[in-house]
Write a structure and sequence with these properties.
The protein is of the alpha/beta class and 397 residues long. It is built from 13 helices and eleven strands. A five-stranded mixed β-sheet has the order 4-3-1-6-7. The protein has a four-stranded antiparallel β-sheet with strand order 8-11-9-10. Strands 2-5 form a two-stranded antiparallel ribbon. A hairpin with a 3-residue loop joins strand 3 (42-47) and strand 4. Helix 2 runs parallel beside helix 5 and helix 6 packs parallel to helix 13 (354-365).
Length: 397
């Protein structure tokens, strides 16, 4: 049974046309969207002007409330909602929940959309906000998230967000951490800011000789647009999502351990590698210098795990992915639910103090301080690790 949530529009809107998911900016709407993203299969906005809006529908700002509509205008809105029911898809077997006020629910009923009103919608505004935060941010994670983004903004302001296809040709630290941003993926509260879509590092196994540049080139592929997803789990995930979305033909050999012997499949796999390189090359990247020997408990591993855990927020991301994010089509639930091109560490909890270490390495990267000794807590690896999943990626369905 599919679950569908319907949110109501609000008076506070952005000043220019944008997707419906970004148009409304009241605290109630933002918290409700977060809740809808993680607790329902689909969600829609009931607009007093446009009727039913999908998150990806383009909409202009407007000044209209259902309570102010004339009888004729209300009837026209009901007709528009009834016509827009096809956006929801097959209604049979769907379970509808409304976060709308009573006057919005009445027009839904008039349009033959029977939705159960959420108890949260009937609460006072302060109670509603508190209840929604209890479900989406019970531990007050947003404070730490904003702190981390403000730390990252320092290096972005100093060096910019570099397109990945340019970054692989530039000088970079010998060892470090990388964070990918997508120019089509805004943060929830400020769409001028981009959200992190992947965190990664290298040299977290004893004896590893791989440098940061080695890892970056493996993810990017070749100058001619090729690549090898068998050496890059990032490429593997992107390729699978491209297939699942129907943007490319299915390639039977994708994700298998050996190159196909059949020339047809070899050619198809090469074409898919090209699409993956194009997608990844269009992302932007921030590189953070984090020196240290290769080891499973080094500072790079500590930062990587904690950043992923914070951004995923136990599969309740505080900056949910947009409707068009390719990762929504991933065959990995961890990617779909976390909003990250990461599988490992998405369900872990983070150490709040890691932000201090992140700031330390941002300052180190910017040349504001010196240092070369590990600063991560000596016992941090005692936390539960989940990276054994990485070893099973090729064998999982």
């Amino acid at each position: 049974m599919r679950s569908v949530c319907i949110l109501s529009c609000c008076e506070e809107k952005r000043p220019a046309a944008t997707w419906a998911e970004n148009l409304y900016i009241s605290e109630s709407f933002l918290l409700s969207r977060r809740y809808a993203e993680t607790h329902f299969d689909k969600w829609f906005v009931l607009s007093a002007k446009y009727g039913l809006l999908k998150p990806g529908d383009l909409a202009e700002p407007y000044d209209r409330q259902i309570s102010e509509l004339s009888h004729v205008e209300r009837q026209a809105l009901v007709a528009s909602i009834a016509d827009g029911k096809s956006k929801i898809g097959p209604n049979e077997g769907a379970e509808f929940t409304s976060f709308c006020a009573s006057e919005y629910n009445r027009v839904l009923e008039m349009a033959k959309i029977h939705a159960e009103s959420s108890p949260i919608a009937k609460m006072s505004r302060p109670e509603k906000h508190a209840e929604l935060k209890k479900f989406t941010d019970p531990n007050g994670t947003e404070v730490d998230l904003e702190n981390v983004y403000s730390i990252l903004q320092r290096i972005i302001d100093a060096r910019g967000l570099i397109p990945f296809r340019e970054a692989v040709r530039q000088e970079m630290p010998m060892a470090g951490l990388y964070l990918f941003f997508d120019t089509h993926e805004p943060r929830l509260r400020d769409i001028r800011q981009l959200r992190v879509v992947r965190v990664g590092t290298h040299g977290v196994a004893s004896g590893s000789k791989a440098s940061l540049r080695d890892r970056m080139r493996t993810h990017y592929g070749t100058a001619k647009g090729g690549g090898n997803h068998r050496s890059s789990v990032f490429r593997l995930h992107v390729g699978r999502a491209l297939i699942e979305k129907g943007l490319v033909e299915p390639v039977k050999s994708w994700g298998t351990s050996e190159l196909p012997q059949n020339q047809k499949w070899l050619k198809m796999e090469g074409a898919l590698e090209g699409h993956v390189s194009e997608y990844i090359g269009n992302l932007s990247v921030v590189l953070l210098g984090v020196p240290g020997d290769s080891a499973k408990d080094n500072d790079r591993a500590y930062l990587e795990q904690n950043l992923i855990a914070l951004l995923s927020n136990a599969f309740h991301p505080l900056d949910p992915p947009s409707h068009q994010w390719l990762g929504r089509y991933s065959d990995k639930a961890e990617i779909r639910k976390s909003g990250l091109w990461n599988v490992n560490h998405t369900s872990q909890t983070y150490h709040q103090q890691f932000a201090n270490m992140l700031e330390y390495y941002v300052r180190l990267t910017l040349g504001e301080r010196t240092g070369n000794k590990p600063v991560a807590p000596s016992d941090w690896l005692a936390s539960v690790r989940d990276d054994v999943r990485q070893l099973r990626l090729f064998s999982e369905p």
